[in-house]
Write a sequence for this structure.
């Protein structure tokens, strides 16, 4: 917002007249006029226009009226982001407020709506500072202050705190906020501790405690009441049951039931006994009848069996006799067979002896023939052995070292080779004769035409007619040395072999081969004659000689003898088999005899038994008849007894059932008795319990505790709510204060700091972060008491704070004019100029309106000089 | 011959009133005992020979011996007035000990109607009682009256305790007395107990109400009925008699914006000299401004000591809050910020009802504190 013009009529000293300040522009605007010129009146009018309701008759409004009375009229043109508006207010008579849009001349709001419009201009949001920032002579805030402050010379600068406090309080709620918070905390502290728990000893905690106590009490009493009611219910039930049980007719009926059951049981029991006796008798007769029947049957079967045994005995005796006869016959046959076998055996022995002798004789004869043959062989072998020894000696003579012949051959070849080489390397000489020339000879031998002659070392050419020509060759004679070595090896080898040359060696080798094969032949011959050596041959010879010595003569045909022996042998075997065959027949007969005798013994024993059963034969028939009669008698008795038992059984009642009935009746009676006495006891117990509790009036107490608990519950809830409300309030206040600090105060501090630097180069002021009030002042490194700040510095601080706020508001998009009314009366010229610099610096971004009476001093401020003009409102 | 009797019920002798504190519970308890005297005095004045107590004479099944003895002694004191005591649900026959003691100690002028059989209480006047056998009998105990024969020309009076239809002091249910029992059983009058406020069911059937109220529910003074029956089949003539010593009043204060809440409340209060015997439950509804609320709260604080008991419920009272109310806290700055935040929260649909209520109360408190600090 910016103020463009201010007009006032009938305000204070301007009774029935008006002034207008027009053309208020951006930046610094200065209205400089002497005291009592109407400057402060303008200031107050401007203030009232924005902060007093047109309907108000408050003291401040009252002060606006001239002494002569009348209705003050104030008008201001303003410019905002929304446009340019005229605000007109008339106080007292025909009080009104109007807003006119100067853009189109339309009335846009009147009365309360107009007030709302103004309020929205001056309140930059409810938590923010006012949209107009005022600094009055010594006054630091827009709110009502101690009136004494406005009067007298001491009115100004009571304390530094006040100089900044105004805006700080406007934002943080200031002292009122602190007091309200303190009051809230105080009330809260009556109820809860800092951590929000109910405070011990205070009503809240006491209420909670009381509620908890009542809760426990109620539960305890409820439990007791439950017990009591339970006892009442149980006793009622017991009493009802007891009354039922104790009724005379019920008792009588139970007694009668027992009696009837007892009688029934007695009858049933005697019936049961009779039946049991009859059954025993029946059983006895049944046993006797059974015995008689079995005796008769035994007798009859014994008689039958006796006849069978007699027949069997006879048959067994016959079989035994037959077996004896057969055995005797078998014994006889066996004796004969044995004799035949013995004879055959002797005969076979004899034939065998003869055969042995005959064999011995034949062997001796064969040995004799062989002895001569062996003698011849031995002699031949000895001749051959001698020949072998001689041949071996000859072979030794012919033996040469192995491979010597081959080596000799190699050496010969080598020699020939060396010789040829030697020949080829030698110097040679040839000659071509002229016709008729004498023959030249070399080393005594003629040198022929066209034939090359070689020589070694030195040769002499004898040339007839000329003399002897000596030829010398400088060649070494290396090849000769190898030749000599080979020739030496050949000589040694030949000596070793004992031959003269290769041909002789070959002949000797052939001879050796020949002798060797002759020797092999002889050795073969010897091995034929004595294959196992001479010793064996000689031993064999000695054996034959021995056999031949005791040679005897048997005159018999060997074939005949052998056949005879074989026949004897066959005969012996046959006889033996015959003898053997007789054995089993004999033993079988023996067994048959034993079996027959045993059977007879068994049968005899049985017959004795039967006889014992049957008794004397004479009495047997009579006895059988007697037994039959007895049996018939028992049968009759048995039938009679059966009928009797059956009849009794049909009559009998179930004893167990009757007894059960009796027992049941008895137990019913007993249980009733027992229950009666138990119920009486229980009732007595419950009665005592009920009496005790009702004398205690537990139920009344319980109901009382329920009511008390409900009431206390409500109280606790009330306290809970109270605590919640106070906590909520405390939180809301704390949040609002800290928000205000964060939103405005800290940014203001940031704005303030550069301004301070601009003004006070020798002083540094630190501000308390929480209260934002000056905290410490350092001048030339010395800490000073805040209270001792000069008045000038205080007012400067006050102005700067407003400027800082204004700057913040402008930054936030809501620029607010700063209005200074004689704000710098205490500042010296040097300071004031610095102040002016600060103002101009700020004025770049907003509107500053300065009212001052210090015309001379404020000449240096510059800025837009404002004029007060006479003004009369258009009707 | 006209038969005149007093019909009362629900004396609840021995009730302790634990929800109150100080002397009040004792006074209320004593007032219940005193209702015996007041009934007897009324009987004498009205020329009634008999007082029928239709159940719940005692508050519990096991009243303390003192309560019991003193009640009987008091009744004896007013002989020859004839008292008939019917077991109710609070003092049912299940409480055998109580009835055994009563039987043993009851004076001659006290009759215990403990059997469901006709009882001659005056010449040619037959009483047909329906005693409660248990706390919750689960059936209509008065049914037997239909078939109970009495000789021609006899006045038939039924005496029963319990709910007719669905209203009852305690949970209703199966044990509901047929509302037309008087017609069905040919009763000249059916005296009912259980409901603590007097109610007429039909011309011959009534609840007498308690002679001494014991709760805020009914908002009626303590009363009893004097009944006159001229002859069999004649319509009974019934008149109500005041018997209460304490009054239990529920006051409803419905405010609209602009009301002077304190003055409106003052109009509701009884005369000053009656307040000592009055228990008041003030239920405040409607809407008011912050200042009205603050003023009301302090007026209540100041009125409290007048009364035997005073409680108020303002949960239903909505607080109207206007800008100037907030202005009264502060026109700007952090205080106003806190007030705005609380105001917004009190009206925010996003908050629970409880939170809104707390915010509203906190705002009220802030207002009150701001006023105090400013002054």
């Amino acid at each position: 917002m910016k103020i463009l013009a201010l007009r006032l009529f009938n305000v204070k000293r301007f009774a029935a007249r008006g002034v207008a300040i027009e053309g208020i522009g951006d930046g610094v605007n200065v209205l400089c006029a002497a005291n009592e010129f109407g400057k402060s009146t303008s200031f107050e009018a401007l203030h009232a226009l924005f902060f007093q309701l047109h309907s108000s008759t408050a003291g401040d409004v009252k002060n606006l009226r001239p002494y002569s009375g009348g209705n003050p009229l104030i008008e201001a043109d303003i410019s905002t982001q929304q446009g340019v508006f005229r605000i007109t207010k008339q106080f007292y008579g025909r009080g009104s407020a109007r807003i006119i849009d100067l853009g189109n001349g339309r009335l846009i709001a009147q009365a309360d709506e107009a007030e709302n419009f103004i309020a929205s201009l001056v309140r930059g949001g409810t938590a923010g500072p006012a949209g107009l920032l005022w600094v009055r002579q010594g006054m630091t805030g827009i709110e009502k202050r101690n009136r004494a402050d406005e009067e007298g010379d001491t009115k100004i600068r009571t304390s530094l705190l006040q100089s900044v406090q105004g805006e700080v309080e406007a934002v943080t709620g200031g002292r009122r906020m602190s007091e309200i918070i303190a009051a809230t905390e105080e009330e809260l502290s009556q109820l809860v501790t800092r951590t929000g728990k109910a405070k011990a000893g205070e009503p809240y905690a006491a209420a909670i405690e009381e509620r908890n106590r009542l809760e426990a009490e109620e539960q305890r009493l409820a439990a007791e009441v439950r017990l009591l009611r339970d006892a009442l219910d149980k006793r009622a039930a017991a009493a009802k049951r007891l009354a039922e049980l104790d009724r005379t007719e019920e008792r009588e009926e139970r007694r009668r039931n027992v009696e009837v059951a007892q009688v029934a049981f007695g009858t049933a029991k005697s019936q049961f006994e009779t039946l049991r006796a009859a059954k025993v008798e029946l059983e006895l007769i049944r046993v006797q009848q059974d015995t008689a029947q079995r005796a008769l049957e035994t007798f009859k079967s014994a008689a039958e069996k006796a006849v069978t045994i007699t027949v069997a005995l006879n048959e067994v005796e016959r079989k035994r006799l037959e077996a004896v006869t057969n055995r005797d016959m078998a014994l006889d046959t066996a004796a004969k067979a044995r004799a035949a076998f013995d004879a055959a055996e002797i005969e076979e022995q004899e034939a065998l002896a003869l055969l042995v002798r005959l064999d011995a004789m034949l062997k001796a004869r064969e040995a004799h023939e062989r002895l001569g043959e062996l003698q011849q062989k031995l002699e031949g072998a000895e001749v051959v052995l001698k020949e072998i020894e001689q041949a071996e000696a000859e072979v030794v003579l012919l033996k040469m070292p192995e491979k010597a012949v081959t080596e000799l051959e190699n050496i010969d070849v080598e020699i020939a080779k060396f010789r040829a080489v030697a020949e080829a390397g030698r110097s040679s000489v040839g000659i071509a004769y002229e016709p008729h020339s004498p023959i030249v000879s070399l080393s005594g031998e003629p040198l022929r035409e066209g034939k090359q002659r070689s020589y070694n070392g030195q040769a002499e050419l004898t040339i007839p007619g000329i003399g002897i020509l000596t030829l010398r060759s400088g060649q070494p004679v290396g090849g000769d040395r190898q030749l000599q070595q080979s020739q030496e090896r050949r000589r040694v080898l030949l000596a070793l072999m004992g031959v003269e040359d290769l041909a002789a060696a070959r002949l000797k080798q052939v001879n050796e081969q020949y002798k060797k094969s002759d020797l092999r032949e002889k050795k073969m011959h010897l091995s034929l004659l004595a294959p196992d050596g001479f010793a064996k041959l000689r031993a064999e010879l000695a054996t034959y000689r021995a056999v031949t010595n005791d040679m005897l003569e048997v005159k018999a045909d060997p074939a005949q003898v052998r056949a005879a022996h074989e026949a004897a042998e066959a005969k012996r075997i046959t006889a033996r088999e015959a003898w053997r065959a007789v054995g089993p027949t004999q033993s079988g007969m023996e067994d048959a005899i034993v079996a027959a005798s045993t059977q007879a013994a068994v049968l005899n024993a049985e017959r004795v038994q039967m006889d014992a059963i049957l008794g004397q034969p004479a009495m047997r028939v009579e006895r059988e008849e007697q037994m039959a009669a007895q049996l018939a008698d028992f049968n009759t008795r048995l039938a009679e007894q059966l009928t009797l038992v059956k009849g009794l059984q049909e009559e009998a009642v179930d004893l167990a059932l009757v007894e059960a009935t009796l027992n049941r009746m008895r137990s019913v009676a007993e249980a009733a008795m027992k229950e009666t006495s138990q119920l009486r006891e229980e009732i007595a117990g419950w009665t005592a319990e009920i009496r005790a509790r009702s004398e205690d009036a537990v139920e009344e107490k319980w109901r009382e505790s329920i009511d008390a608990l409900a009431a206390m519950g409500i109280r606790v809830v009330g306290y809970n709510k109270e605590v919640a409300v106070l906590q909520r309030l405390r939180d809301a206040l704390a949040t609002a204060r800290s928000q205000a600090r964060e939103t405005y105060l800290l940014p203001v501090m940031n704005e303030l700091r550069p301004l301070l630097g601009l003004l006070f180069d020798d002083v540094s002021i630190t501000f308390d972060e929480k209260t934002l009030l000056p905290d410490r002042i350092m001048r030339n490194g010395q800490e000073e008491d805040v209270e001792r700040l000069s008045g000038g510095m205080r007012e400067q601080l006050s102005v700067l704070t407003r400027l800082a706020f204004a700057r913040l508001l402008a930054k936030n998009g809501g620029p607010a004019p700063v209005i200074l009314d004689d704000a710098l009366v205490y500042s010296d010229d040097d300071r004031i100029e610095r102040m002016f610099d600060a103002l101009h610096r700020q004025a770049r971004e907003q509107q500053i309106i300065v009212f001052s009476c210090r015309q001379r001093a404020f000449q240096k401020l510059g800025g837009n000089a404002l004029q007060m003009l006479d003004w009369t409102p258009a009707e | 011959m006209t038969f005149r009797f007093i019909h009362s019920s629900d004396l609840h002798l021995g009730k302790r009133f634990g929800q109150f504190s100080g002397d009040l519970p004792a006074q209320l308890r004593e007032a219940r005992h005193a209702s015996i005297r007041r009934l007897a005095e009324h009987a004498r004045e009205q020329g009634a020979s008999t007082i029928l107590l239709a159940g719940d004479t005692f508050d519990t099944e096991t009243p303390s011996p003192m309560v019991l003895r003193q009640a009987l002694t008091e009744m004896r004191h007013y002989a020859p007035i004839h008292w008939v005591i019917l077991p109710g649900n609070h003092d049912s026959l299940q409480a055998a000990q109580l009835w055994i003691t009563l039987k043993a100690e009851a004076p001659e002028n006290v009759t215990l109607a403990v059997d469901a059989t006709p009882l001659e209480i005056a010449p040619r006047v037959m009483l047909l009682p329906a005693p409660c056998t248990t706390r919750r009998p689960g059936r209509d105990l008065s049914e037997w009256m239909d078939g109970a024969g009495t000789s021609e020309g006899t006045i038939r009076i039924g005496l029963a305790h319990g709910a007719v239809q669905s209203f009852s002091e305690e949970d209703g249910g199966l044990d509901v007395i047929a509302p037309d029992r008087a017609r069905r059983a040919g009763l000249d009058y059916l005296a009912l107990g259980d409901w603590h406020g007097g109610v007429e069911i039909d011309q011959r059937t009534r609840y007498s109400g308690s002679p001494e109220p014991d709760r805020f529910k009914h908002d009626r003074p303590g009363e009893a009925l004097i009944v006159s029956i001229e002859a069999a089949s004649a319509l009974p003539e019934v008149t109500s008699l005041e018997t209460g010593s304490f009054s239990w009043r529920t006051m409803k204060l419905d405010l609209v914006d602009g009301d002077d809440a304190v003055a409106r409340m003052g109009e509701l209060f009884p005369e000053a000299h009656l307040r000592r015997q009055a228990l008041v439950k003030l239920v405040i509804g409607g809407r008011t401004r912050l200042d009205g609320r603050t003023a009301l709260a302090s007026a209540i604080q100041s009125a409290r000591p007048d009364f035997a008991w005073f409680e108020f419920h303002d949960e239903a009272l909505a607080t109207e809050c206007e800008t100037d109310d907030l202005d009264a806290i502060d026109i700007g700055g952090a205080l106003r910020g806190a007030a705005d935040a609380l105001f917004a929260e009190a009206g925010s649909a996003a908050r629970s009802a409880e939170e809104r209520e707390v915010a509203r109360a906190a705002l009220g408190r802030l207002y009150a504190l701001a006023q105090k600090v400013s002054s």
About this structure: Confidence is low (pLDDT under 50) at residues 124-129, 137-163 of chain A. Chain A touches chain B through 60 residues (CB under 8 Å). The longest strand of chain A covers residues 2-11.
